[in-house]
Amino acid sequence: MHFLSVHRARPSQPFRPPVYLLCALLALAALSACSSISNRVPTIITPYKIDIVQGNVVTREQVQALKTGMSKGEVRDILGSPLLASVFHADRWDYVFTFRRQGQEPQQRKLAVFFKGDELARFEGDELPSEQEFVASLDVRRKFGKVPPLEATDAQLKAFQEKNTPLAPEPTPPAPSPDTSYPPLESTR
C-alpha cells in the first residue's frame, strides 16, 4: 500500500493558543486593572516610616534644676552635652530636639543657655514637657495602663546596690622582706 493512500484525515480540533500567549494576555489584564485603582492605592497602603528622634531631650524638671551662677560643668551634668556649641559664640549652648512620627505633626523644642565666662547667666526656650508628658507622647500606640514610674524607690536602689557591690579584693601576697636576695638579672661573664 502506498503511504498517501493510507493516510486518514483527522477530525478537526479546536484551535489551542500556546501557553505563553495566555500568560501574556493575563499579565496585560492585570496591569490594566492596576492602572484603574492606582489612584486609590496611596490612601489604602502607605509605606512604613520609622519614628525619628534627633537632638537632646530636655524636660521641664531639668530646666527647673538650672540656677544662675552654675558652672558649665554643672549645666552639662543636668542637660547633657549641647547639640550646638559654636566657636564664635562660646558663651551660648543650644539644645534642640525634633521628633517626627508618621501621621503626626513634627515636634520641635529649643532651649538656649547663655554663660558669662564659666557661669550660667540665663536661659530661654520653648515650653517644655515634663518627663511623664514626654514619655506619654512617645508611646501613643499604647491604649491601656499608666506611664511607668520614672524614679526608683529606695528599696529598688538598695537592691541594686547590694546586687552591684564589688566583691572584697583578694588579699595580696606579702611583699618580700628587704633582706631577701635575688639572682642577678644579667650574667656577669
From TrEMBL:
Domain Outer membrane protein assembly factor BamE: 55-124
Bias (Pro residues) ranges: 168-177
Keywords, in A-Z order: Cell outer membrane, Membrane, Signal
Highest rank taxon of the organism: Bacteria
Biased composition (Low complexity): 178-189
Residues in coiled coil: none
Spans annotated as Disordered: 153-189
InterPro entries: BamE (IPR026592), BamE-like (IPR037873), BamE_dom (IPR007450)
Main location: membrane
Compartments, as annotated in UniProt: Cell outer membrane
Similarity comment: family membership: Belongs to the BamE family.
Complexes and interactors: Part of the Bam complex.
Functional summary from the UniProt entry: Part of the outer membrane protein assembly complex, which is involved in assembly and insertion of beta-barrel proteins into the outer membrane.
Protein name: Outer membrane protein assembly factor BamE
Organism of this sequence: Hydrogenophaga laconesensis
Gene label: bamE
